[in-house]
């Protein structure tokens, strides 16, 4: 008791088709199929994008504005 048998599931499916109508039900299943297809396509594209990117070159080291004695080395104004 409390579990669904295949007969229960069949009755629920028939009731759903009667309430929604055959056309609406088939359109709904078509939309689900399109969603699955787009999901698979997106997963395939993600695999292509996971290839390592080109290495970014390091920036040059910034020059100090003051030397160790506190004298201004460069003027950024």
UniProtKB/TrEMBL annotation:
Basic and acidic residues composition-biased segments: 49-77
Region of interest called Disordered, as start-end residue ranges on this chain: 44-77
Membrane topology annotation: Single-pass membrane protein
Keywords per UniProt: Cell inner membrane, Cell membrane, Membrane, Protein transport, Translocation, Transmembrane, Transmembrane helix, Transport
Family: Belongs to the TatA/E family.
PANTHER family: SEC-INDEPENDENT PROTEIN TRANSLOCASE PROTEIN TATA (PTHR42982)
Protein name: Sec-independent protein translocase protein TatA
Species for this entry: Sphingomonas aurea
Gene from which the chain derives: tatA
């Amino acid at each position: 008791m409390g579990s669904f048998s295949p007969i229960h599931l069949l009755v629920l499916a028939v009731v759903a088709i009667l309430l929604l109508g055959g056309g609406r039900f088939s359109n709904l299943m078509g939309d689900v199929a399109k969603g699955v297809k787009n999901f698979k396509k997106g997963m395939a594209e993600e695999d292509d994008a996971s290839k390592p990117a080109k290495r970014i070159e390091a920036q040059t080291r910034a020059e100090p504005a003051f030397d160790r004695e506190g004298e201004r080395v460069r003027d950024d104004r």
